[in-house]
Design a protein that fits this description.
about 210 residues, 12 helices, about 60% helix, 2 domains, Endonuclease Iii, domain 2, mainly alpha, single chain
Length: about 210
C-alpha cells in the first residue's frame, strides 16, 4: 500500500495539525517554526543522480558539478549509455561517482512503477543500487515521491532536533529515532519537516550556523 501522497502545502498543513494534536511538543515547535515547507521535487533518474553527485561534497561543489552536468546534457539516463569516463571527469565527477551513475543508468529502473510501489519496496529497490544508501532512498521517497509516512532517522539533524525538542540526555540513535517516529505515523514525513525546521530555529537561537 502506497498510503497518503503529499502534493500541496495544504497536505503538509494537515499533517502538521494532526501531529500538534497528538504531541504537545510538536504544537510548541510549530509556534516557533511557522508553516512547514512543501519540499516536493521531481522524481526519476535525474533526482537520484543529483543525490549521488551531492554525496560527501559541499553544497557549493555539488551545485557546480550539477551545473556542468546540465550544461553538457548529462543529467538524463539516455546520455549515460554513451558517455565516456573522460566526459565525466571533465565535469568533476570522481571515479566512484562515475561508477554509481553508470550503475543507476544500467539498472533500468521503471520510475512509473516505483511511484506505485509500497514504501518499503521503494527503499529496498533503491538501496540495492551502488551508491544509494538508506538515507538517500528515504529522502527520495519523502520528497520525490511525496510519501507522507516515510522518515529518515539516520539524518543527524533530525536526531539532534529530536534531542532538543524532547529534552533527551543524548542524541538518539538511528534505531531509537525510528522507534520514536512510529508514534507519528501516518505523517512521519511531515514530522521530519517539522524537526528540520525546528532544528534551524533552535540552532539560530544558540548562535550556531546550520549551513
Amino acid at each position: 500500500m502506497v498510503g497518503r501522497i503529499i502534493e500541496t502545502a495544504d497536505c503538509v498543513a494537515e499533517g502538521a495539525e494532526w501531529l500538534a494534536r497528538r504531541e504537545p511538543r510538536f504544537a510548541t515547535a510549530l509556534t516557533m517554526t511557522g508553516p512547514l515547507p512543501l519540499r516536493r521535487r521531481a522524481d526519476g533518474f535525474s533526482a537520484l543522480l543529483d543525490a549521488i553527485v551531492s554525496q560527501q561534497v559541499s553544497t557549493a561543489s555539488a551545485a557546480a558539478i550539477w551545473g556542468r552536468l546540465q550544461a553538457a546534457g548529462l543529467t538524463e539516463e539516455a546520455a549515460w549509455h554513451k558517455i565516456t569516463d573522460d566526459d565525466l571527469r571533465a565535469v568533476g565527477l570522481s571515479r566512484q561517482k562515475m561508477r554509481y551513475g553508470r550503475a543507476l543508468a544500467l539498472a533500468g529502473l521503471n520510475y512509473d512503477e516505483l511511484r506505485l510501489a509500497p514504501n518499503g519496496e521503494v527503499v529496498e529497490r533503491l538501496v540495492a543500487l551502488p551508491g544509494i544508501g538508506r538515507w538517500t532512498a528515504e529522502i527520495y521517497a519523502m520528497f520525490s515521491l511525496g510519501r507522507a509516512d516515510v522518515f529518515a532517522p539516520g539524518d543527524l539533524a533530525l536526531q539532534e532536533s529530536a534531542r532538543l525538542l524532547f529534552d533527551l540526555p543524548d542524541r538518539p540513535s538511528e534505531k531509537a529515532l525510528r522507534s520514536m517516529a512510529e508514534a507519528w505515523s501516518p505523517w512521519r514525513a511531515v514530522a521530519a519537516r517539522l524537526l528540520w525546521s525546528y532544528y534551524r530555529v533552535a540552532k539560530r537561537r544558540e548562535g550556531v550556523r546550520t549551513g
